[in-house]
Design brief:
about 0% strand, 5 helices
């Protein structure tokens, strides 16, 4: 497995768990988001997925979500505007 493909595998695992009737919990999202952080990829729709599964992010998870949020404002974003 090449670097960056782990987040795809973890996303598939969470999807299969959901199909089999398992309830996706906080730690599943933590592992999934950590895989996105390690792969340095944006996690499109992760907030909506968490909201649909009634997952309320704490400080730890919220910090990770902000790292992979593709629409966050950075210092360079203000220069564009």
């Amino acid at each position: 497995m090449q670097r960056g493909e782990m987040f795809i595998t973890r996303r598939k695992i969470v999807y299969r768990m959901r199909q089999d009737g398992y309830r996706v919990r906080f730690l599943h999202f933590h592992d999934l988001i950590q895989a996105y952080v390690n792969a340095k990829r944006p996690a499109y729709g992760i907030r909506e997925r968490m909201k649909a599964d009634n997952i309320i992010p704490g400080n730890l998870l919220l910090g990770l979500v902000q790292q992979v949020d593709p629409f966050r404002m950075t210092e360079a974003s203000y220069l564009r505007d």
